[in-house]
From TrEMBL:
GO terms for molecular function: transferase activity. This is CoA transferase. It comes from the Bacteria. Keywords: Transferase. The lineage of its organism: Bacteria, Pseudomonadati, Pseudomonadota, Gammaproteobacteria, Alteromonadales.
Length: 389
């Protein structure tokens, strides 16, 4: 569906590569520009499959790769030549780095006025924190999310997924790029997109943020409807596993209380002062049976109670399987690699996964040939370290 869109991706780690992977899944042609000397740390993560990590091979599927030493002027000229043919530049450097390299937005805009340039950074292109280093944990902390995403009297915990990186940087980056492409289609104008992972994480305070700003209600640990302040929570079974209970609506709460023989709790559902009593009663009730016993009961009922699965169990869950959320992707060493599928379903489009992410700069020679460079010129660039393949 995006087969007419060409993206030059200069990003590393998670936010930018995840964004460009989503766009590649939707058909865009993505060329990743990598450093031949400073290896993307995601390549070295565990587990390793062949010569790089499974995470790298997933995040960079269906992409081409060229390895350029951007400290050399010849490499900068190659970028400028590529920009003439590309629709989008995606980068993740700190503010000012691309300008110092000689390929900042204004420079590239002069070459291609229709260019859409998306910069994903921790704190954005402006503001007192723009040059500050950070990671997902820091962005969630600054955005106010960590302060009420915890148990009372306990410290915030590192999340299992990178919320600010992906829900903040990657997905908002995709939204910005697609919006700019639509705008360009109508006006022929390019665009500079400034994505701050902290800004976007701050915007994820959807309901709590509204209450804090308009109602002066500052959320704390286990103080709200959905963060442990009610019976909406996790409960341990007799064998140490957990069930998630989201039975907020009256019909679900009533059905659950009847099942657990706790009908005396029905009048207390909406009373804040009674929430701990309800939680204590649920805690005792769920410890009366094993995880499997509860599973056998709740699979037949529609009460908003589901098991807490580990990731292997989630991959094998019948709903995940039925929705085809795991796909087979071609891999240069193993032949086939199982990966997470694109979760967006279309009536008239099926994503195509060309191959798992490959070696650094593996497509460099082909890309330079397509730019019109002679074999002798390409050989000279390789010898001098401008390009590596």
């Amino acid at each position: 569906m995006l087969s007419d869109v060409k993206i030059l991706d200069l990003s590393t780690l998670l936010p930018g590569p995840y964004a460009s992977m989503v766009l590649a899944d939707l058909g865009a042609k993505v060329l990743r520009v990598e450093s031949p000397t400073r290896i993307d740390l995601v390549r070295e993560m565990s587990p390793q499959v062949g010569t790089s990590s499974a995470a790298h091979q997933y995040l960079n599927r269906s992409k081409e790769s060229i390895a350029l030493d951007l400290k050399q002027p010849e490499a900068i000229e190659i970028i400028k030549a590529l920009v003439q043919e590309y629709d989008v530049v995606l980068e993740q450097f700190r503010p000012g780095v691309m300008d110092r390299l000689g390929i900042g937005y204004e420079t590239l805009k002069a070459i291609n006025p229709k260019l859409i340039y998306c910069a994903i950074t921790g704190y954005g292109q402006t503001g007192p924190y723009k040059d500050r280093a950070g990671h997902d944990l820091n962005y969630l902390a600054i955005a106010g999310i960590s302060s009420y995403s915890k148990r009372k009297e306990q410290s915030p915990i590192p999340q299992g997924i990178q919320i600010a990186d992906v829900a903040g940087g990657s997905l908002h980056g995709v939204i910005g790029i697609l919006t700019a492409l639509h705008h360009r289609q109508r006006t022929s104008e390019g665009q500079m997109i400034d994505i701050s992972m902290t800004d976007c994480a701050f915007a994820l305070n959807a309901m709590s943020g509204a209450g804090a700003l308009a109602g002066n209600e500052i959320p704390g640990a286990e103080s709200q409807l959905l963060n442990g302040g009610t019976f909406y929570d996790y409960y341990q079974t007799s064998d140490g596993r957990y069930l998630s209970v989201g039975s907020l609506e009256p019909k679900f709460f009533s059905g659950l209380c009847q099942l657990l023989d706790l009908e005396h709790l029905l009048p207390l559902a909406s009373k804040p002062s009674a929430q701990q009593q309800i939680k204590d009663s649920f805690t005792l009730a769920f410890k009366q049976k094993t995880y499997q016993q509860w599973q056998a009961i709740f699979i037949k009922l529609d009460l908003c109670v589901e098991p807490v699965l580990n990731l292997k169990e989630a991959c094998e869950h019948p709903h995940i399987v039925a929705r085809e959320l795991i796909v087979d992707v071609q891999h240069p060493q193993t032949g086939i690699q199982k990966q997470l599928a694109c979760p967006i379903k279309f009536s008239g489009y099926q994503p195509e996964y060309q191959q798992a992410g490959g070696e650094v700069g593996v497509d460099g020679k082909q890309i330079l040939s397509e730019l019109g460079l002679s074999n002798s010129k390409i050989t000279a660039f390789k010898k001098s370290g401008v390009v590596t393949f």
